[in-house]
Amino acid sequence: MSASRAALLEALRGRDEPVGLAELIEETGLHRNTVREHMDALIDEGLVERHRAHAEGRGRPAWLYRATFGPRATAGNEYAALATALATTLERTSDRPAEAGADAGLAWGRQLAEQAGEPDRGTGAAARRKVVEIFDRMGFAPQADRSSVEVLLTRCPLLEAAHESPTVVCSVHLGIVRGAMAAYGHDGSASELHPFSHPRGCHLRLVADAEKDRR
Q1: What distance in Å separates the CA atoms of residue 125 and residue 121, rounded to the nearest whole number?
Q2: pLDDT tens, 116-144?
Q3: Which residues, in sequence order, are bridge partners of residue 181?
Q4: I need a surface site. Which of 85, 161, 191, 213 has the fewest CB within 10 A?
Q5: Are 155 and 171 a contacting pair, CB within 8 Å?
Q6: Which is it for strands 201-205 and 150-153: parallel, antiparallel or unpaired?
Q7: Residue 213 has pLDDT above 60, yes or no
Q8: Contacts of 183 by beta carbon, 8 Å cutoff, 6+ apart
């Protein structure tokens, strides 16, 4: 997600009432067409909903926008709480919590790859781009370089769990990478995740075939 789109989403999340396009333009300073395009994209992603304002006088009523909360957000919070509890328990009871987390992530990554579909091409670069796409859908807001090797994860949907049990949670996330790479026919075992190593998030280095792509 671009910085301007993220700013618009945060602006909506800070409001209790729906907001019109003109108000969003004034608050963000973005061009009208830019705001409209971002709103359409956020609606497609299920992050924003819109409805017509009440008619006043002639002309078509304006669109009003609001961030999606309610049952979807509640379910996400419950999932995060459950993940925190499970990670804490696993870290306390398992002799090898990092390996257990990685194994869970490996299976999860394969499943996510199946749901996301095959890359456009069978190359390692295409597989890396697809993994970045998977992490974007999961809510990590990844920012990748042109080759999709160096990736900055600017958000974490399980941030509380990651702070409480980083050994488990971050191993799960790295396992997801390796599982997805494997599902796409590539060896992602040399990929690396460095939690909280950047002021804006976690650094992920994607490698889709240890010998071919190692730098």
Answers
A1: 9
A2: 888 877 899 999 999 999 998 888 889 99
A3: none
A4: 85
A5: no
A6: antiparallel
A7: no
A8: 109, 110, 113, 114
